[in-house]
Write a structure and sequence with these properties.
- The chain is mostly helical and 93 residues long.
- The chain contains 4 helices and 3 strands; from the N terminus they run αβααββα.
- A hairpin with a 2-residue loop joins β2 and β3.
Length: 93
């Protein structure tokens, strides 16, 4: 076995390259999983955060991260929770 400049064998270098490729693939899959979180309906958002419809409407007007699909508002709970944390310093358990 011949050592390269870093003092590791070619076989070890190949192993590390494959490991790095698999690790990067794993990171991509995890990132995609969280970015593909389902959109919750306004009713689900209202129930999850224990708010009423008028409060939901005020939050939408003040920048809550939701989108309108047809005539319905939808959003990702984790993004809305982060918005609350950033806006109001609210902590959820």
């Amino acid at each position: 076995m011949e050592d390269n400049k870093q003092g590791i064998s070619h076989e070890a270098e190949v192993f590390l390259d494959k490991f790095e490729d698999k690790f990067n693939l794993f990171q991509d899959l995890i990132t995609r999983k969280y970015s593909m979180e389902k959109y919750s309906t306004s009713v689900e958002i209202i129930e999850y955060f224990s708010i009423d419809k008028p409060t939901f409407s005020r939050f939408v007007k003040s920048g809550m991260p939701v989108i309108k699909i047809g005539s319905r508002w939808k959003g990702k709970l984790n993004e809305i929770e982060q918005w609350f944390k950033d806006k109001n310093k609210v902590h959820f358990s």
